[in-house]
Amino acid sequence: MVESVVQTMIIVIAVIVAGLAILGYTSALLVPTEAFTIAEQQAAQIAAQTTISPGPLLVSSNGVGSVLVEAYDPSYSGNYTLYVFLIPSYLVTSAGVVTPNSPVVDNVYFTVYLPNKIQASTVTGTRIYDINGNELYQGKLLVYSIPANTPVTINLYNVPNQGKGYYVVIWLMINNGLYMFRVGYAYTGLPYSTG
Amino acid sequence: MKLKALATTIALIIFLVILLSVLVPAFFILYITPGYSDQGNIAAQAYQEERDLQLNNIFKGNPLIYYSSGTSPYVKITVRTVQTPINITQIYYYNGTMWVPALNNSINVDSSMIIPLPKAAFNEPIVIVTGVSNILYLNPNTSVTTSAVYYLVMVYSVWEYGGNPPQGGF
After folding, report:
1. Which ipTM value was assigned to this complex?
2. CATH number of the CATH domain containing A77
């Protein structure tokens, strides 16, 4: 009878331990993963709906480049975040995989203006994921917050060689507070006439 | 004794059920991507068609958009046939350094009209942004049908669409 009680106690303890282990696993791994996955799915939906329309890049004689961009998604009225960088023209076919920390990329200083001529607010991004949940960029990145369906002006400073031989890559991201996902990218260069 | 053996089995079954009730949702969350983005693709396709339609109409000169860049620059829009009105979100002119917005409000083009631009636009290119986010680049004294219209759209992981790709002088 005494042995039976000990056995039962062992089973009860084992079940409690197993239960705690499952609880620990759920809260430590599953809950953050679920939050991430939900954010990723939202990003994927916005990514599928959003189109980016860039205008041409015009560069003045003092090396200030200016580009127009509109992120268009009629069913989204929130904000995107935006980052731009310059790539040499031979990389244009791989514009989708070039990231700001690549050594050939020129991360020029840039400002973003809304149509009311007010400068867009900035956000510091730390990690940027693509819509498959893979990490695209790690490190601090100063990005601008822009509204959807509104054209914005991007001014790039110290553009080398009057922009000849360079393209501007525009990264469009959404930021849900916890994670930043790149929902689209586009590139643009000098127009025919000024080339 | 028989009853006790059965109790262990029942306990194990309960344990299994608890385990599955955690693992099955975990599997769904981790490995199954629902069709959100498919849904988005379908929506995006409709927008894209609308934009293409508008762009085709503009290319065919319906309406005809002409940018006159004299000392009093203006954009002249000639509507020829009845069609879906074009909404102009903004017109930007280049002031030598940056693109500057010229309009205070968006304009709904339902009939022929002339939109005056600031004098600073003289002999500088302009960009017209339409309501469906088509971007029309116009050199001075050209119309959309004759100018090299700038058009490049890219949708991540959906499709790539290009009109006239940008040509730098390199």
Report:
1. 0.79
2. 2.60.40
Parent domain of A149:
45-188
The answer to whether position A11 is within a domain reads no
What is the rounded distance in angstroms from the CA atom of residue A180 to the CA atom of residue A182?
A: 7
Asked if B167 and A47 come within 8 Å (Cβ–Cβ), the reply is no
Distance from the Cα of A45 to chain B's closest Cα (Å) equals 4
Total structural domains within chain A = 1
In-domain check, residue A2: no
Indicate the DSSP class of residue A10.
Answer: H
Neighboring chain A residues of B166 at a CB cutoff of 8 Å? 56-57, 167, 188-191
**Domain presence at residue A93:** yes
pLDDT tens sequence for chain A (195 residues): 567 888 888 888 888 898 888 888 878 887 888 888 888 888 888 888 888 988 889 999 899 999 999 999 988 899 999 999 999 989 888 888 889 988 989 999 999 999 988 999 999 988 999 888 888 999 889 999 999 999 999 999 999 988 888 999 999 999 988 889 999 999 888 876 443
Structural tokens at position A56: 């041409």
Flag if A50 and B155 touch (Cβ within 8 Å).
Answer: yes
C-alpha B28/C-alpha B5 separation (Å) is 35
**Which one of A19, A30, A72 has the shortest CB-CB distance to B29?**
A30
